[in-house]
Amino acid sequence: MAKHQVAELTRLDPGSLTRCDLEGTPVCVVRLDSGEVFAIADTCPHEEASLSEGFLEGSAVECPWHSSVFDVRTGELLGPPATEPVQTFQVVIEGDGVWLEATAPRA
Asked: What is the pTM of this model?
Protein backbone atom coordinates (compact mmCIF):
# COMPACT_ATOMS: atom_id res chain seq x y z
CA MET A 1 0.00 0.00 0.00
CA ALA A 2 1.26 3.49 -0.74
CA LYS A 3 2.11 5.92 2.04
CA HIS A 4 -0.26 8.78 2.78
CA GLN A 5 0.55 11.89 4.81
CA VAL A 6 -2.07 12.38 7.52
CA ALA A 7 -0.55 14.96 9.88
CA GLU A 8 2.38 17.20 10.72
CA LEU A 9 4.50 16.07 13.65
CA THR A 10 4.74 19.58 15.09
CA ARG A 11 0.93 19.67 15.38
CA LEU A 12 0.77 16.47 17.47
CA ASP A 13 1.31 17.30 21.13
CA PRO A 14 2.89 14.64 23.36
CA GLY A 15 0.13 12.67 25.09
CA SER A 16 -2.41 13.45 22.35
CA LEU A 17 -5.01 11.55 20.32
CA THR A 18 -5.81 12.97 16.88
CA ARG A 19 -8.40 11.77 14.39
CA CYS A 20 -7.07 11.64 10.81
CA ASP A 21 -8.35 10.24 7.55
CA LEU A 22 -6.58 7.56 5.49
CA GLU A 23 -8.42 7.28 2.17
CA GLY A 24 -11.82 7.44 3.89
CA THR A 25 -10.82 5.33 6.90
CA PRO A 26 -10.84 7.12 10.27
CA VAL A 27 -7.53 6.66 12.07
CA CYS A 28 -6.49 7.64 15.60
CA VAL A 29 -2.92 8.98 15.52
CA VAL A 30 -1.34 8.85 18.96
CA ARG A 31 1.73 10.72 20.13
CA LEU A 32 2.92 9.29 23.42
CA ASP A 33 4.55 11.43 26.09
CA SER A 34 7.85 9.86 24.96
CA GLY A 35 7.32 11.41 21.51
CA GLU A 36 6.71 8.07 19.77
CA VAL A 37 3.86 8.08 17.25
CA PHE A 38 1.45 5.19 16.63
CA ALA A 39 -1.78 4.81 14.68
CA ILE A 40 -4.79 2.57 15.22
CA ALA A 41 -8.29 2.36 13.77
CA ASP A 42 -10.30 5.22 15.26
CA THR A 43 -13.50 3.20 15.59
CA CYS A 44 -13.99 1.06 18.70
CA PRO A 45 -15.18 -2.41 17.64
CA HIS A 46 -17.65 -2.55 20.56
CA GLU A 47 -20.09 0.29 19.77
CA GLU A 48 -18.20 2.30 17.11
CA ALA A 49 -17.17 5.23 19.31
CA SER A 50 -14.27 7.42 18.16
CA LEU A 51 -11.15 6.36 20.07
CA SER A 52 -9.53 9.73 19.36
CA GLU A 53 -12.15 11.19 21.73
CA GLY A 54 -11.04 8.75 24.43
CA PHE A 55 -8.41 8.88 27.14
CA LEU A 56 -4.70 8.10 26.83
CA GLU A 57 -2.80 6.65 29.77
CA GLY A 58 0.73 5.50 29.00
CA SER A 59 0.40 3.49 25.79
CA ALA A 60 -3.25 2.54 26.34
CA VAL A 61 -6.29 4.32 24.94
CA GLU A 62 -9.65 3.99 26.67
CA CYS A 63 -12.85 4.25 24.65
CA PRO A 64 -14.93 7.25 25.76
CA TRP A 65 -18.24 5.35 25.68
CA HIS A 66 -17.84 2.02 27.49
CA SER A 67 -14.18 1.98 28.63
CA SER A 68 -12.74 -0.71 26.35
CA VAL A 69 -8.95 -0.37 26.46
CA PHE A 70 -6.46 -0.94 23.60
CA ASP A 71 -2.66 -0.89 23.38
CA VAL A 72 -1.85 1.80 20.80
CA ARG A 73 1.45 0.09 19.93
CA THR A 74 -0.10 -3.24 18.92
CA GLY A 75 -3.89 -2.76 18.71
CA GLU A 76 -4.25 -5.47 21.37
CA LEU A 77 -7.43 -5.45 23.44
CA LEU A 78 -6.51 -4.84 27.07
CA GLY A 79 -9.97 -4.55 28.61
CA PRO A 80 -13.64 -5.27 27.78
CA PRO A 81 -16.40 -4.83 26.81
CA ALA A 82 -14.89 -4.99 23.29
CA THR A 83 -13.98 -8.53 22.29
CA GLU A 84 -11.51 -7.91 19.47
CA PRO A 85 -8.39 -5.79 18.86
CA VAL A 86 -8.20 -2.75 16.58
CA GLN A 87 -6.26 -2.49 13.34
CA THR A 88 -2.85 -0.86 13.46
CA PHE A 89 -1.14 1.24 10.82
CA GLN A 90 2.57 1.55 10.12
CA VAL A 91 3.78 5.07 10.95
CA VAL A 92 6.63 6.67 9.02
CA ILE A 93 8.04 10.06 10.07
CA GLU A 94 9.74 11.98 7.25
CA GLY A 95 10.79 15.50 8.16
CA ASP A 96 7.68 17.00 9.77
CA GLY A 97 5.32 14.64 7.94
CA VAL A 98 3.45 11.78 9.59
CA TRP A 99 2.74 9.12 6.96
CA LEU A 100 0.70 5.92 7.33
CA GLU A 101 0.57 2.53 5.66
CA ALA A 102 -2.17 0.03 6.49
CA THR A 103 -1.22 -3.31 8.03
CA ALA A 104 -3.32 -6.45 8.31
CA PRO A 105 -5.84 -6.41 11.18
CA ARG A 106 -4.75 -8.46 14.18
CA ALA A 107 -6.95 -11.43 14.97
From this structure: 0.89
